[in-house]
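Two proteins follow. First one:
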Amino acid sequence: MDLNQTRQEINTIDAQLAELFKKRMNLALEVAKTKKKANLPVRNAAREKEILHAVSEAVGEPLDGYARILFNTLFDLSRSYQSNYLSGGSDLADRIKRALDETPDLFPKKAVVACQGVEGAFSQAAAEKLFEVPGAMFFTSWEGVFNAVEKGLCQYGVLPIENSLLGSVGAVYDLMKHYNFHIVKSIRLRVAHSLLAKPGTRLKDVREIFSHEQAIGQCGAFLKSLGDVKITICENTAGAAKAVADSGRADIAAISSIDCADIYGLESLKNNIQENDNNYTRFICISKNLEIYPGADKISLVLSVPHKPSSLYRMIARFAALGVNLTKLESRPIPGSDFEFMFYFDMEASVYMPELINLLSQLESQPNLFVFLGSYSEVI
């Protein structure tokens, strides 16, 4: 057969597969009705195993592996379809509906916002773009920001989550599992670094540079050009500028924002020292309560999957089946477990999508870890 004939035959088979798929899903719905009357669980692992063995034997090598993937996907879709029918509402669905009903139409202009560092920190700059009048309350650590929001000391908190040059801020992700919070907004902030020192200091006089490790990483090429200069890690870039200003030394400098020069009475020895002008840091704005503002088009989750082959693939397939675009997948080790991980998902999706809410409700009802972090929009 030539190519056109082959494609025509494939089209015929695809039409048959589509019809068979529809019949299979309709029969799965009948199974769900029977299970509902008998109060039986959706999944029958023994039956799935029997089917996979029979299919593998039927197709043989080299297609048995592909057939297993196909039928595992069918099982996932069938379980999801049955669960949608059996779903009688969930705590998550109720919380999302309540948040949609109770969240104001407009994001607040004023708020007390927890930020890590001191005045001039990039977190403060992000807060000032999110709120017209933010009352910044500074904490020495990211953990302090989480703690302030959870205990109600601040209504909101702003935290860096990833950088376009260095990737995710792992320490913030690791803290997430310990606190009760929700993401209500995110923002991408362009980050430009300057080398700041006391007035009169010359670049050739600098023997030590203070800054946060993320800023150090973003300015690697510039630092390499300086030769043998000591690097001292600080909690925050603004804190580094303050440390230089408070010191009695004329041979140190800080990598910080140019705004910190005015705040702490320093001078810039060189501006825009980051390796790439397209240097952005993404910040999340968190609150204790679930708030979903109009226009929310992103969803973030934390979940774990069984420590078995294909578990993560099958989880992702469930979102793919709904046409949901996953934009970020971050894995972090589960403390106390050998080689087991929890996963952080960002996706482009709306809570107004019933099928997605059903899927999230199913995930929440399963024994594996599941946390709905929020539905929000991003400010660019």
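Second one, unrelated to the first:
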Amino acid sequence: MSGTSSGPAPDALELAALLCSRVCHDLISPVGAIVNGLEVLDDNPKPDDREFALELIRKSARTASARLQFCRLAFGAAGSAGAQIDLGDALTMARGHIEDGKTSITWNLPRLLLPKNRVKLLLNMLIIAQQTIPRGGVLTVDPIGEGEAMSFRVTATGLNARLPQNIVDLLNSTGGVDAHAVQPYYTRLLAEACGLKVALQAEGEAMVVSAS
């Protein structure tokens, strides 16, 4: 991930453009794989190659769908102002987007409705935590407090877990951002909208993202 740029924080128009770029980045790989699979089918392949192409298309379509649903909840409007979101739905979206055979989620939250910005904050905290375990591992989600005022703690454990300093800086400052860095910046904005502060720090060999 590239470092942050110098300069002022993005205005609303630039922030919208940066978030759109982030979503496109998440989708380009599976959509490109679908196109590649269709091109193989167009070439009248042998049966083995045809089955390989079909499996590639199936897998990539599932990935693209899961990423779209996650991004809709994590970055999108997700209902009207004042809307609430079921934490059970958030778990389904998170598992579809993050769990891949290398990374798993341990979810210790009760099933209840929370204001949408708190749920969006949680999903974005999971993205940050995932970036600290590039070789995979476990993301453990625990509550801080209860009811509608509930906040969250996400603990990432895995081989060679690391603390990306640029993400720490973005969570703590108003420095300029680019399309690569907009997600942690957006996470901080969500936390502020909830009256919270989000932080990333090492606790022993674990990396912890918390909002309080």
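SUMMARY FIELD: The mean pLDDT is 88. Strands lie at 84-86, 103-107, 113-115, 137-144, 151-157, 198-203, 206-211.
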